[in-house]
Amino acid sequence: MTYFADVGALARKDLLLELRARDTLPAMLLFVVSTLVVFHFVLPAESSDLAATGLLWVALLFTALLGLSRSFAAEREQGVIDGLVLAPSDRSAIWLGKALSILAFLGLAEVIALPAYALFFRPVDAGLVGGVVLADVGIAAVGTLLAAMATASRARELLLPLLFLPLAIPIVIGGVGASVSGEPARYLGLLGLYDALFAIICWASFEYVVTE
Amino acid sequence: MSTWSRNNRLPALATLALTLMAAAIALIFFYAPLDEDGLNQKIFYFHVPIAFTAYACFGWGGWKALRHLWKGDEDADLESYVAIHLGVIFGVLTLVTGSIWARYRWGHWWVWSEDQLVLFLVLFLFYCAYFMLRYSLPPGPQRANLSAVYALFGVALIPVSILAIRLSQRFIHPIAFDEGGPNMAGSQFFTFCVAVLAMFAVAATLYHLELAGKRLDIRLRELREALQ
Fold it and tell me: How many domains are contained in chain A?
């Protein structure tokens, strides 16, 4: 399976780079905790804990955007992307490897964010954790492709949130629904459907984003 | 395609659109019966056909985007862009007419419980981002590819958003509108169908008009470059 070996090598490269340079992950961790603190002051005293759950999702989304906007920085600045495109492997492997490394970053950020949320606001339940896991897959899949698009444009980092937020609305609906409603199965189903559908589209169309 | 049909398609389409539109307006105001909503209900015959037309434009734009990626059809990029451009215009009209309808029916300009309006707001934001993407790239094959991929995302986003917004009503608004909606009398349904057809014809005319203009523009630029 050379395809999966390629994907593994690409994901490993990103994780190794992060381990050595520590560019993205500390920023994401600090950002998500600071947003939670800000949210404490945003919420009026009488507002319910459910409002805090909604804000947690805002924090997670923007943390993901922060990580995504840097995700192709090395590729762009050092011209790595040309090398990767020329390499004798399927182009979708570039997307999958990058999406996996983004997924790892998101997971690590949430390992800190969810306990912090439980400490500051309200306990975390299974619906919320399931929602976060499924939402991460969707965010990583769509976000990686959009980050590659934004990198190609003149506006760069400015463009990514604009491209990403309208596409993230179903993720937010599914995630918030899974964390606040009594019966999360329906919302987790929506998230699963979103992940499957958009992962297939991203996997199939990534080639056109990096080649001409 | 023969020269005759190319030269005469636009006037023929425009005539058809004009006739259908006149027929639809006549039917709406003189034939379709009033229901308990009174005159306000007439906007239904504009709002819903405009929304359908916007969907059709987005769908057509997505189809052309797919053709561009799949078959490498050079023209399809421009066609996809023009269709989406028209879709956004019809989408804004949907938001405006829907907002007016909501004002007279429920007393508010904006109603979050109205699925259709919320969906069009999401789509409007999405396709505005499409324009941002398109205009921040230099013209060329890469711009065509990225626009096409993003347009395909839009086609996938429409059904997923419909589902998501339906689901979201359960935790944002406890009472949803009933699934059946208002029943339509036969004469109302006929008027509605004519109105949909008329709106489609108007959109098709505008599409070909815009496309002809853009193609002329490109041709002119090519000729200018050849002269220099």
Answer: 1
Judged by CB atoms closer than 8 Å, whether chains meet at B122 and A187 is answered as no
**pTM listed for this prediction:** 0.86
On whether any CB of chain A is under 8 Å from the CB of B126, the answer is yes
Model ipTM value:
0.87
Residues in A lying within 8 Å of B, measured between beta carbons: 142, 145, 149, 152-155, 159, 162-163, 165-167, 169-170, 173-174, 176-177, 180-181, 186-187, 190, 193-194, 197-198, 201, 205, 208-209, 211-212
> Alpha-carbon distance B35 to B173, whole Å?
27
pLDDT per position in chain B (228 positions), as tens? 455 566 678 888 888 989 998 888 888 888 877 766 667 777 888 888 999 999 999 999 999 999 998 888 888 889 999 999 999 999 999 999 988 888 887 788 887 877 788 889 999 999 999 999 999 998 888 899 999 999 999 999 999 998 888 888 766 544 334 444 445 667 778 888 888 899 999 999 999 999 999 999 989 999 999 998
Give the HSE-up count for residue A49: Cα atoms under 13 Å, Cβ half-sphere: 11
Q: Pull the structure tokens for residue B18.
A: 């004009």
* Burial class of B16 by CB neighbour count within 10 A (0 to 12, 13 to 18, 19+): middle
Q: Which class for A71: exposed (0-12), middle (13-18), buried (19 or more C-beta within 10 A)?
A: buried
